[in-house]
Every structure is written in structure tokens, then in C-alpha cells.
Write a structure and sequence with these properties.
Number of domains: 3
CATH superfamily of the largest domain: Bira Bifunctional Protein, Domain 2
Radius of gyration: 26 Å
Bound molecules: glycyl-adenosine-5'-phosphate
CATH class of the largest domain: Alpha Beta
Distance between the termini: 14 Å
Strand order of the largest sheet: 3-9-10-16-13-12-11
CATH architecture of the largest domain: 2-Layer Sandwich
Number of strands: 23
Number of helices: 15
Shape: globular
Largest sheet: 7 strands, mixed
CATH topology of the largest domain: BirA Bifunctional Protein, domain 2
Structural class: alpha+beta
Strand content: 25-35%
Length: 469
């Protein structure tokens, strides 16, 4: 199904297609919108579901050494003290004293002063801003507060009376539920080290500079693995998981030439990491982090052992040895992968419609594994005998695949819609179908059509979609 992809799409074009076709809507729009929030429409919900399913199948179902978990969004507040998030999970901010606009100080210094802010302390950032006195991009004044740290965790309360209630956090990463449940999973699942626990779930971050469509969100889903190992095997495990991540990206059709690896410098490393490598993707706004792989050492389990008083060590029976497992963490965001897949799939090409009129064909060349609909069933015209037959074919296929049925507009326009939402195959019911029970199948990428017997359709479609591969 692969075809050349010559087009680099702008974010505006993508966002407008995504809205028009029902992938992504601006959040709470009937109330005037809620800045930096998004809702996923019928096609977006399918795409997300397919991404998550592909991840689960590849990283958990396929492997003997992996199990899943579905931990809570609300965890004991001490979890975030132990994890270091209360003390360390913050961004440096500055405020304009005149218009009260707020900016992330490190990106501000990089973008406005052209100076690398990597690893700079709050004091150093403040000194740079005092020295260069940049103008506020909103009001033009040069009156800045000192740089301050701002924790990214959202807070909420358990209990009806806010003042007397326990303050808790919405989790900023799914990882901690895995660490907190490590011992229970070990006891209930009969796994032995090395093994991993994977989880998909929402995470929340009060980001100061969200933006770039759905790239940086306040609320997003993570797909994370904590892989528990003996400390001396961390380098081999790191390489293994780096390769696994690359294979997963290939499996869902991401173009290799738009992916690259980036090693974190020592200044950049998160408070828990000894080594981090990002998979970066070439987004329309440049190379940016798509996913990460971190060597978290025994930091998390050790800290939770310390803060909870529970023994979180592991006993290796073969070696008769007790130790705190070390951890390799492959992690990626669902929406960020969603955006990369949209960018990657987008293509435009000159084409001629069924009436011989030239037009620009917009096509999302999704890998069939992640395409929202696997096929569309279309009666050639809205005639009762064709509609009845087409509905019967759609019902047959719905037992196996996510199918769209569409009888509106001309056949040419319906093909265009399916191209634009990335449906790999269009199945058309015409008058010949009524005679011999065959239909045409149109291939999204080549636009070639052939005839297939209805009785063979589920099998033929499964084969062409690459099921079982
Ligand atoms: N447990 C490790 C961890 O949370 P991270 O690099 O902060 O590491 C992991 O996040 C992944 O989650 C990122 O690679 C990215 O895909 C996604 N992600 C992080 N922050 C995000 C945000 N504000 N909006 C959307 N996705 C985000």
C-alpha cells in the first residue's frame, strides 16, 4: 500500500481537515471554546483506538514478558513526593508586570534572545532577562518579574468541603501507578525479572505553552512501559527497547526518514534518568519529541520503598540474591503519535474525477492497521434495490471490520471523502451486483478497481488489509 509521499502539510491545513472530517474538534466550542483543549470526533476516536490497540498488541499481547495495568488517575499524594514530581516537575516562568502575560522563561530566552537555555538555572535565566531587557511580545513593555518555578501538576480535592479535604494531584505520568503496584503485580502474575508492566491512560500537565494543534496538551494519553531488570543488564535492555520502538513505528506505517534519535545531554535529563533517548519526528514545525526511552535506574522503586516503608526489593531465586530492580522506560503519547500519523499520511496529487474534470486529490495514506474505517460500502446510486443490497454487504462486513456506509452525493464525491479520511478500500454496489453478486473494490492509493464476489469479500478484504501479518 505504500506510495511516495511528496507533500509536507501545514498545521492549518491539517487542523481544518481534522475538524471538517471529524478527527479533532476545538474543545467546548459551543461555549466559545476552552483554550488548548480538544475533543476527538468519530474518526479521531477510531484512530486513537487503533493506535492504542496496535501498541497493546505489539508491546503486551505479543510478548511473554509483559503484562498490562490500568492504574488510577488519582494516587496518594505521597506518591508524587516520592517520585520527585512535587519538588522537581516544574517549568521556569516569567510574567510581564505590565500586561500580565506569562511565558516559559527557557523558551523565551531561546526564541527572543537566541541564546541556548539548556541547563540554565532560574538565577541565570533571570540575569539574562535583566541584562537584555527584551520587549514583551504582547504589550511591548520591558518590565519583567524574576523567573519563578511553576509546578505542572493539576491539583484537585477529595471530599465535599474544599478547605478540609485532601488535596490530590491528577497524575502527570502513568508510570507511577506501575511502580506503586509493582509488588502486587509481581505476586499475582508469576513474572520474573526481566519483565515489564505496560499501561495506557490519561495524564495531565498544566503546560504554560501548549500549542501546535494537538502537539502539547493539558490532557493527553500516555502509553508507557516500565521494564524491570537487573542493574548490570541495563545497556542491552536499553538497546533492545530502542529497536522495539522503531519496529512499532514501522508497523503503524510511520516513514523512517521522518524519524530520528536524539540523545539527551546531561543537563536535560529528567530528575530520575541516567540516560534518555528521544525518537523525534519531523513535524511541520520542525523535529520534535515523539517518544522517549529512559533508564530510570532504581530511582522510583527505591524512593517508594523509602516513602511507603514497604519492601520493594526482588528476590532472585536462581542467584539467591535480593535487590531493587532497575527500570527501562519506553514511553509515548497517543495524541502526539496521532499528529505524526496525520502529517505522515497526508498527501495531495493531481487527479481527474469520474466526469473527466481535473482536481487535487487529498488522500490520507494511513497504514490499514490504523485507518479509522477499513472500507466504505457505497451503492452506486440511491436506488432502493442498490441501497438494500449495499446495506446487506455493509452488515456482512461489520462483523469483521469498521465499515462506513454512505449513500449521499455522487459516487465521485464519496470517493473523495473516503480518500480524505484515509479509508483503504471503497466497495461499490452497482447493477451488475444485482445480476451476479459481485462488487467493485477500489484501492485508495492506486485508485485501481477490480470485481470480487460478495461471498469472498471478508476474506479478500482481510488479506488486502494485511490482517494476520
Ligand atoms: N513517564 C515518563 C514521561 O512521562 P515524558 O517525556 O514527559 O516522559 C512521555 O512524556 C511522552 O508523553 C512524550 O514523549 C510525549 O509523546 C507525551 N507527552 C508529554 N507531554 C505531553 C503533552 N503536554 N501533550 C501531549 N503529549 C505529551
Amino acid at each position: 500500500m505504500s506510495a511516495p509521499h511528496p507533500v509536507t502539510v501545514s498545521l492549518d491545513t491539517l487542523a481544518s481537515l481534522a475538524k471538517r472530517r471529524g478527527f479533532v474538534y476545538p474543545g467546548s466550542e459551543i461555549y466559545g471554546g476552552l483554550a488548548n483543549t480538544w475533543d476527538f470526533g468519530p474518526l479521531g476516536a477510531e484512530l486513537k483506538r487503533n493506535i492504542k490497540q496496535a501498541w497493546w498488541e505489539f508491546f503486551i499481547q505479543r510478548r511473554e514478558d509483559m503484562v498490562g495495568l490500568d492504574g488510577g488517575i488519582l494516587l496518594h499524594p505521597r506518591v508524587w513526593e516520592a517520585s520527585g514530581h512535587v519538588a522537581e516537575f516544574n517549568d521556569p516562568l516569567i510574567d510581564c508586570r505590565n500586561c500580565k502575560s506569562r511565558f516559559r522563561a527557557d523558551t523565551f530566552v531561546e526564541e527572543r534572545l537566541g541564546i541556548s537555555a539548556e541547563g540554565l538555572s532560574v538565577e541565570e535565566l533571570t540575569r539574562l532577562i535583566e541584562e537584555y531587557q527584551p520587549a514583551c511580545p504582547v504589550c511591548g513593555q520591558r518590565n519583567w518579574t524574576p523567573v519563578r518555578r511553576f509546578n505542572l501538576m493539576f491539583k484537585t480535592f477529595i471530599g465535599p468541603v474544599e478547605e478540609q479535604s485532601a488535596q490530590v494531584y491528577l497524575r502527570p505520568e502513568t508510570a507511577q501507578a506501575i511502580f506503586v503496584n509493582f509488588k502486587q503485580v509481581l505476586q499475582s502474575s508469576r513474572q520474573k525479572i526481566p519483565f515489564g508492566i505496560g499501561q495506557i491512560g490519561k495524564a495531565f500537565r498544566n503546560e504554560i505553552t501548549p500549542g501546535n494543534f494537538i502537539f502539547r496538551l493539558l490532557e493527553f494519553e500516555q502509553m508507557e512501559i516500565e521494564y524491570f531488570i537487573r542493574p548490570e543488564s541495563w545497556e542491552a535492555a536499553f538497546e533492545h527497547w530502542l529497536a522495539e520502538m522503531g519496529q512499532f513505528f514501522a508497523r503503524i506505517g510511520l516513514r523512517a526518514e521522518r524519524l530520528r534519535l536524539r540523545e539527551h545531554s546531561p543537563h536535560e535529563l529528567s530528575h530520575y534518568s541516567k540516560r534518555t533517548v528521544d525518537y523525534e519526528y519531523l513535524f511541520p514545525f520542525g523535529w520534535k519529541e515523539l517518544a522517549g526511552l529512559a533508564y530510570r535506574t532504581d530511582y522510583d522503586l527505591r524512593r517508594h520503598q523509602e516513602y511507603s516503608g514497604e519492601d520493594l526489593s526482588y528476590f532472585d531465586q536462581e542467584r539467591n540474591e535480593r535487590f531493587i530492580p532497575h527500570v527501562i522506560e519506553p514511553t509515548m503519547g497517543v495524541e502526539r503519535l496521532f499528529l505524526a500519523l496525520l502529517v505522515d499520511a497526508y498527501d495531495e496529487e493531481p487527479a481527474v474525477d469520474v466526469n473527466g474534470k481535473p482536481y487535487t486529490r487529498v488522500v490520507l495514506r494511513f497504514h490499514p492497521r490504523i485507518a479509522p474505517y477499513k472500507a466504505a460500502v457505497l451503492p452506486l446510486m440511491r436506488k432502493p434495490e442498490l441501497v438494500e443490497k449495499a446495506r446487506a454487504v455493509a452488515a456482512l462486513l461489520r462483523n469483521h471490520f469498521m465499515i462506513e456506509y454512505d449513500e449521499t452525493q455522487s459516487i465521485g464525491r464519496r470517493y473523495r471523502r473516503q480518500d480524505e479520511i484515509g479509508t483503504p478500500y471503497c466497495i461499490t454496489i452497482d447493477y451488475q451486483t444485482l445480476d451476479d453478486d459481485t462488487v467493485t473494490i477500489r484501492d485508495r492509493d492506486t485508485m485501481a478497481q477490480d470485481r470480487v464476489a460478495i461471498s469472498a469479500l471478508p476474506h479478500v478484504l482481510a488479506e488486502r488489509l494485511g490482517y494476520g501479518a
